[in-house]
Structure formats: C-alpha cells, structure tokens
Amino acid sequence: MAVQLQPVNPPMGPNLGFCVGKTTVLTMKEKVWSLSGDTFTITDENDQVVVQCNGTTFSMSDRKEFLSPDGRPLFSLRNKLLSIHKSFYAEGAGGEIVFEVKSKFSFLKSKMHATFTNASDKQVVELECRGDWLDRSATITDLKNGQVVAQISRSRFNMREILGGQQSYYVAVAPNVDLSLMAAICICLDEKENEKK
Predict the structure, then answer these.
(1) What InterPro entries does the annotation carry (predicted)?
(2) Could you tell me the sign of the dihedral formed by the alpha carbons of 78, 8, 129, 167, in that order?
C-alpha cells in the first residue's frame, strides 16, 4: 500500500507521543483465537508493534484497552450504551473523555465523526470517516480544512476471514497524526460494520 499523504500541521491527536514525521502504514490484524474478540495486533511497515488493542471478555460496553508497545495504558475504548446510532468514547486513565466517535446516517456508505481536543493547540478537531465497505476502503478527513489524514483499506478475503471472521486492515496515516487514534477509529468502523451482519 504505497500512499503519500501531506503532513498535518500542527500535529494532530489527543496524544502527540504517537505522532511520527512520516507517512506510516499500520497493519491491523484481528487475533484469531481471542476469547474476547476485537483484540488486534497493530504494527508498522517494519513489523514493530505501534499500539496494542485488547478486547475485554464479559464487558457490557465491549471495552477495549489500548496500550503502548511496552504495556502502558493509553485509553479504554467503549461502546456508548443507550445511543440511537452506534457511538464510542475513549476514557483516559483518570476517567476523562479523550475522544468520541459517533455514527452518522449515510445511505449505503459508512460514516462516522470523531471529536477530540488537539493536544498541540487545544483546538477542538472533528474528523469524518467515510467508507464504502463494498469497495473495502475508507477515508478519514479533517472537516475544518478537508485534508485527508488517513486512508483505510481492508484485505480481500483470506483464510483468517473465511474460517474465523477475523479482519485485516491497512491504515495509511499522514505525518504528524496520532497513530493510536487512527487505529481506534478503524476499530470503531469495524464494529459498526460487524453490527450490520
């Protein structure tokens, strides 16, 4: 997946520790034998773990724990209960809301909006994730200026998907954009699509 995306300035994300100065392609593979489901291995082009996502068994809100490569907690991603459209929120270690991702109605295409306060300039950022799962792709765009900050593609059917229903995604992330946030948005989109099945 050779994708060139323009650098984002100022750096974008609730956690700037996961921003890098070049386009990064994340490979996200759902673990086949996970009891909880929604446990992903997330690596970069060099096969280095960028962030860990561990699904939690027996959680009402389908909680997923995001961890740094060395196991340090970053945030918990949860389904927002009692919501008309599929919605998620990320909760930091202190209980604060780090970002929210909400479904928007869109005929045939998947559409979600992610909102957070940018750590670099304290401005509220709204991103739109619009996908065509028939095309097996999605684009994440900054609504303020229309800049594409990430592109998601899903692998064609493979044995993991046929036998276990596990997905594999590739997420090209623009320079200076929070990799953990883009991985979380991709997982939100995956959950929304799985709900339709």
Answers:
(1) LOR (IPR007612), LOR_sf (IPR038595), Tubby-like_C (IPR025659)
(2) negative
- pTM > 0.85: yes
> 3-state class of 116 per DSSP?
strand
Percent of the chain with pLDDT over 90: 58
Q: Where do the domains of the chain lie?
A: 16-196
Q: Give the model's pLDDT for residue 84.
A: 61
- In the numeric block, the tokens 């065509």 are attached to 132
CB-based contacts of 180, cutoff 8 Å, min separation 6 = 13, 15, 18, 50, 51, 66, 74, 75
CA–CA gap between residue 187 and residue 129 (Å, rounded): 12
Six-digit token string for 8: 């984002």
C-alpha to C-alpha distance for 127 and 149, rounded to whole angstroms: 9
Residue 193 has pLDDT above 60, yes or no: yes
pLDDT of residue 2: 54
CA distances from 69 to 29, 42, 103 (A): 15, 10, 29
Chain mean position to CA 80: 16
Single-letter amino acid, residue 138: A
CATH superfamily of 16-196: LURP1-related (2.40.160.200)
pLDDT recorded at residue 34? 47
Query: Helices (DSSP H) in the chain: which residue ranges?
Result: 159-164, 179-196
Q: Is 70 helix (H, G, I), strand (E, B) or coil?
A: coil
